[in-house]
Hints:
Blueprint: H1 3-9, H2 11-15, H3 40-43, H4 70-73, E1 83-86, E2 108-109, E3 118-119, H5 120-126, E4 129-136, E5 139-145, E6 155-156, H6 160-174, H7 184-187, H8 201-205, H9 223-231, H10 246-250, H11 267-281, H12 285-297, E7 303-306, E8 319-321, H13 323-334, E9 338-339, E10 342-343, H14 347-355, H15 359-363, E11 374-376, E12 379-381, E13 389-393, E14 397-402, E15 407-413, H16 424-445
Amino acid sequence: MERSAIRKNFVVMCTAVFTLSSVVAFAAEEKIPDALESDPIKLGWMIGFPPPEDRIIRFDDGSYFKFPQMRWSVSNFRQLMPTVNVSRGVSVPSELKQKIDGNINQLMFLPTNSKQPMTWEASLLANFTDGIIVLHKGNIVYERYFGVLGAEGQHAAMSVTKTFIGTLAAMMVADGLLDANKKIAEYIPELAKSAFGNASLRQVMDMTTGIRFREDYADPTAEVWAHAAAGNPLTKPKDYKGPRSYYDFLQTVQAEGSHGDGFHYRTANTDVLGWVLARVSGRSVAQLLSERIWKKLGAEQDAYMSVDSTGTPFAGGGLNTGLRDLARFGEMIRNNGMYNGQKIISQTVIDDIRQGANKKDFAKAGYKHLTGWSYRNMWWVTHNKNGAFMARGVHGQALYIDPAAGMVIARFASHPIASNSANDPTSLPAYYALGEYLLGLDKLKK
């Protein structure tokens, strides 16, 4: 691969792949607009027929993932890029009853490493929340939307996508369709010469592979940019000689370290897992998600996934859903795979997710806000006293499940900083505090 060509010709193209958005349009010394100042409706993005030239957001020039434009884009990706549908089918949506709790906005908690308490409501603006819903024992107790997102809208789930792919893989393992101990090359011979070839399916599912894949967005030579260039659906420059699809890119990944030595969060693992699922099932991951989960949930809306130039769904981060449907998925997991009057996921799979993985392996990744956590089947497991576990995506996407509290939180956001380390100090304590509050309500009712 000619990295100089990537640097020269794909700066715009790579920024158009939404998981690679840690670089914002403001210099470090400039003030980033807060949630109210960057509200996409207030700023007038894409309003009018056509919108004023300086309010137009485009995919091909990379403007769609600059900040604050991205606050509009994350709720409108289907208007800007090629996608494939995740059908909900034609059934009646499953019911979500409302029992709104007006006290939640004023719930107080202490952010990490802070002596200044914060309210739940204040945390939403601090984290650039676009939409958040809280279920308590299946009932909606809290629901808010901001900016251009509404209950009927869809929003990028970013790397929450990985959790869906990991769950589908765990389901196929439980069904005997996949063997977690088999090597990847046994499923995908095309990857035999890559670093993935001699990794086990389990190592891919838990991201303990030894591969060279740096997700350093500040380094234009990092593999994450080559991955972006390969998966970008735009026409490649004539002098481009690199991979032209996600599948092409995966075959170029080289070894670094040893498989099984520790947890390393690398998006390429999920793309490999998606390829395995598609090869074994004969379905794309979008079709598989529709058939095995989305139709059975009684989702209100179709979901959709972004695709590369060959129509391959982006397994590592391409899913877009409605907020309530993301909450339905979380509630199904909380209910041990039972939802909408049927068993969607086996107890074996749920137990495997909730038990987590090796904490020492996870600790090697150095997440300072996630001490004592682990990673299993592409779920993040807290191992806290309530047994909470979650799905996480850049810029603040989250699905948080607290089994002890009977609570599910689904959140979409458009934080200007990609890494969740920017919002974890407020988000994670807020989630825990709300779980404790709901637990307290349950005790009072007994």
